[in-house]
Amino acid sequence: MSPKLETLPNGFRIVTETMPGLGSAAIGVWVLAGGRHETAPQNGIAHFLEHMAFKGTETRSAVQIAEEIEDVGGYINAYTSREVTAYYARVLKDDLPLAMDVIADILLNPVFDANEIEIERGVILQEIGQALDTPDDVVFDWLQERCYANQPLGRTILGAEERVRSFDREDLAGFVNEHYGPGQMILSAAGAVDHDEVVRLAERLFGGLAGRDDSPAPQATFTGGERRVIKPLEQVHFAFAMPSPGYMAEDVYTAQIFATALGGGMSSRLFQELRERRGLCYSVFAQASAYAETGLTTIYAGTSAEQIGDLSQLMADEVARAGRDLSMSEIERARAQLKAGLVMGLESPSSRAERLARMIGIWNRVPAIEETVARIEAASLDDIRDFGRSLCRSGAALAVYGPADAAPDLESLQERLAA
């Protein structure tokens, strides 16, 4: 069935899609406020706020929030990204009103108890420490910082330790007051859902929120740059990025096709050349990610100190070569991967609810699958090769972590790309 969209007078949006034959539903509220909406002193507060949502409301304790959902066999969770914070649940059909009530309660009535703030502060500091001990995670944070230096989009989602140590109740409440207005929220539900029932529940739970002006995130500009951290690890973790289209751009799917053909699977050029033919690494991939007005084509590989020079230089050669001679068979294989991933994702109510919210947040409508497929099909071989060649001239960012003394610098890799 087709998605249905309703907007309450205060700007709160509700989007649903019924999936016949299911006995469960995914429901959540996506708030259009993430890491990139923070000021420098606020860095990490969106994520801290997500954690605090489950630490008690005016009517439910932290334990009651978990028990009420799990007593009916459901689950509830949340996540923070650079552009959104999501609070969601999966329950059986008859328990949808309960899930909506709990989600509304944690969003609208958090108490931000001082003791709970201190406990969760410790949890988040442990999370930061764990991330710092995970090289293939932290190298992407460093890469993001180089891509968007001194900008909100370049800061970590978890935040710096000194910031996290300083947040108090007033900071949390202030971020909510600034960014959690009804016009910045999208309630999305998919599966065994009835649109009219969801709208009635949403009107009761969220209809009384007063409308407020939106606080858009600052525009981001790709800067590029290099960060190299030498440490005696088992491997060098290598992450490289070039600026790509944002999700509003016409060529966003051109970028995705190119990245998929370059390093999106076992048949891709990077996997075949760097791993299968040369044996230079175990893990290597490329991906295209998009934000509102900008995006990145990113390449990652992990290799030994002795092989980082060969790997990074061959990576640059393969990117440049792909812009010249990607074949039609490679393009069609990449198209098939993108289309299959899109369709397979729609078979899960949780994935479908997330897609609905994401589409409403971007376009305030949900494009038909056929429309998305048509855009994937519309990119020609020349378009994709042209995009690949443009990548080689567009600037870059580099992050390397580990025994990386022999890794080429960013300037030499960019020269190799442009050769």
Summarize the structure in words.
The protein has helices at residues 45-52, 62-70, 96-108, 114-132, 135-147, 161-164, 169-179, 195-206, 252-263, 269-277, 308-325, 328-345, 349-363, 369-378, 381-391, 410-418, and strands at 4-7, 13-18, 24-31, 75-80, 85-92, 185-191, 225-230, 236-244, 283-290, 295-303, 397-402. The protein is α+β, with helices and mostly antiparallel strands. The strands form 2 sheets. A 6-stranded mixed beta sheet has the order 1-2-6-3-5-4, sandwiched between helices. It has a 5-stranded mixed beta sheet with strand order 7-11-8-10-9, with helices on both faces. α9 (252-263) packs across α12, α10 (269-277) packs antiparallel against α11 (308-325) and α12 runs antiparallel to α14.
Keywords:
six-stranded mixed β-sheet; 16 helices; 419 residues; alpha+beta; 11 strands; five-stranded mixed β-sheet; 46% helix
Shape: globular
> How many helices in DSSP terms?
16
Beta-strand content:
15-25%
Helix content: 40-55%
Q: Low-confidence segments, ≥5 residues, pLDDT <50?
A: none
Radius of gyration: 23 Å
Strand order of the largest sheet: 1-2-6-3-5-4
Main β-sheet, in a few words?
A: 6 strands, mixed
Q: How are helices and strands ordered from N to C?
A: EEEHHEEHHHHHEHEEHHEEHHHHHEH
Estimate the mean pLDDT confidence. 96
Number of strands: 11
Structural class: alpha+beta
Alpha-carbon distance between the two ends? 51 Å
